[in-house]
Write a structure and sequence with these properties.
- By secondary structure, the chain is of the alpha+beta class.
- Helices cover 21% and strands 24% of the residues.
- The chain has helices at residues 2-7, 42-61, 63-74, 193-200, 238-250, 258-266, 279-301, 340-349; strands at residues 23-26, 31-34, 37-38, 85-89, 106-112, 118-122, 127-133, 138-143, 153-158, 171-174, 179-186, 204-207, 218-221, 317-318, 333-334, 337-338, 366-371, 386-390, 396-406, 421-423, 437-442, 453-455, 462-471, 485-486.
- The strands form 6 sheets. A 6-stranded mixed β-sheet has the order 8-7-11-5-4-13.
- Strand 2 (31-34) and strand 3 form a beta hairpin.
- Helix 2 (42-61) crosses helix 6.
- It is globular and about 80 Å long.
Length: 488
Amino acid sequence: MTKRVLQLAAATFIAAGSIPVASAQDARHGYTFERGYPSGQTAEQAIDNADLRRAIEAYKFFFPTVATEGVFQQFVPHGMVPNEVGIIMPQDPEQQFAYANQDTPYILGHFDLSEGPMVVELPDGPYIGGVNDHNEEWIADSGIIGPTKGKAEKTILLPPGYDGVIPDGYRPVRSKTVQVLWWARVLSATGSYDEAVEYANKVQAYHIADSGKTSTYRVIDIKGKPAPNPMLAWEHNIKYWENLDKVLQEEPVQEKYRVMNGMLHQLGIRKGAPFAPDARMKEILEEAARIGFDEMSVTYFANPDPDRLVWEDRTWEFIPVVGAFDPRLKEWGGPSYRDLNTSDAYFWAGFGTSAAIGARKAGSGSMYFTTPRDATGVYLDGGKNYRLNVPGPVPARLFWSVTVYDTETRCIIDSGQGRGAVRSLHEKPVTNADGSYDIYYGPDKPTGKEKNWVRTIPGKGWFTTLRMYGPTEEAFSTYKLPNIEKIR
């Protein structure tokens, strides 16, 4: 069956009515019919192919759902408890978080709304935060990018279908799932991690019934502690589907997911029923996981959309490709469609959605330029040395950084250097006489420019991203990054 699935993965079912003769075979598909009926192995092959196609598209569509479940599980060993204990991390290489930055520490909190609304309180402060549901769908922004613009706020997280009283003074946000992820990054002006921890300890959370009481919510600092991403162990095998089934059983059914849930139903993943695939279905599901993952990878690294390029004569690309996230639709695309390629690329590489994502305007939270290629268009090689000249001044009102990611994990590269970035706040890279910065990538340390260097790993691929926090108008007009040059 494996050989047949592989050979016919892209086959398209031929309706009996499309065959004009009593007995025919179409060499493109390998299906045969006699008197309009499937003959030989056609029925078995067509069923396998249909299941495989359904599974591949379901894999890609629900990738953010399983990734969110992975985050919920990732920090349990460190003491994260829904509604009670969150975590803060500096996002060093040993803490695997997809496409995270190493500039602003992350605060994460898992909230379970099965027992009613939960309140999250933030004081005045440099928080950039938001709330995502179990499908990684955007619910709300908070902090600097929220409605209070960094002033104190009280956000009440409402479970699906909640119609109770909402007290005055609270901002209600409604979730379509019971489990939600609250997150925030701390934009310390000095880059001090200790200051970020202090801000994390000011976060309060409690059941709405406990309003007015002292909050017992805690945030644990996991600096220096490895936090492997469980998703990396699920992506290519049956564990992906097992965890998707777990979410399906836990969460209410949403009307807009009926078609995609229909695909899961065909695959044996059904609300209220045990997931017990037989050998045939398990093989199809695991093959679909491998194919789906690879196709999403290609969409990210070889996206054919010309709009991905920041400048036509450079290899630098926008993240996400199509620009700003639509907060009304809660996805990329337009009123009549969802941009599936952008969704696939974004959720494959990164984690977390916000209404501020991709906003290409001065004063927005941050702006990203990324590339997996050198000046010749060749993919970057961890065994070779490269240089990027970053023109100065960098058009960032706050600070900027250049970060390196592992192509296989999409996490910050873990090369033993202790960091995977060159940051204006931390490394304070050496400036050239003309005000520009030479950033070095490769296995060999550049003499006298160690602060400007990120070590890469021979035998592995990598890609890099320039982030500008508080981008100025020049970031969208006159500023232009040169290509990355290989050092010969």
